[in-house]
Amino acid sequence: MLALDTATPAVTVALHDADGDRTLAAAHKVDARRHGELLLPCIDAVLSEAGRKLTEVTDVVVGVGPGPYTGLRVGLATAEAFAAALGQRVHGVCTLDGIAYASGLTEPFVVATDARRKEVYWARYADARTRVTDPAVERPAAIEAREEEIGALPAVGAGAVLYESVFRGVRPDLPTDQSATALARLAAERLAHGEELLPPRPLYLRRPDAQVPANYKVVTPR
């Protein structure tokens, strides 16, 4: 099982034993502006380290966000292309779920990642495996208004660290970015229990930054 995610500043890839719970190799680079440059070399490095060929991959798992438009689509397009070329399945997993799973927490908590524009992507969890709210994108001030509901909960992720005045239970000792190793293990666990994973479609939650300019003039040939 090849797992990858580019929904956070981390470009993360892992090769997982589809018949067990062992990670064969993993690569992790953090650079919010170079997802497209780093992803394929990371995949190549993981396959080489594990001594496996791409044709041996039976499942592709990809983080579907939420995440910024440009970075997120790099991982999704790559996963779809590999799955199509291999004739194999591609499974989607919420990026926040991967971060939650890596935390290992057994109590209610919050995962928050940096959404830029002074916003965060976030969701609440009952434990590391159980999300209890849909992913959302909000300004920290809106979250702070629900202090009794959220403020005192343990909080995981780069968004929580960035706005620790809002997420007062921030856990800087726990993972802040996505880990493809955790994503692969979570996906393998869910598949083993017969759970249906998400389609490989992006969770943008808002419109992209790039838009067609207003009053755009169409030029037609004479």
From TrEMBL:
Gcp-like domain residues: 32-139
InterPro entries: ATPase_NBD (IPR043129), Gcp-like_dom (IPR000905), T6A_TsaB (IPR022496)
Full protein name: tRNA (Adenosine(37)-N6)-threonylcarbamoyltransferase complex dimerization subunit type 1 TsaB
Xref: Pfam families: TsaD
Species in which this protein is naturally found: Streptomyces smyrnaeus
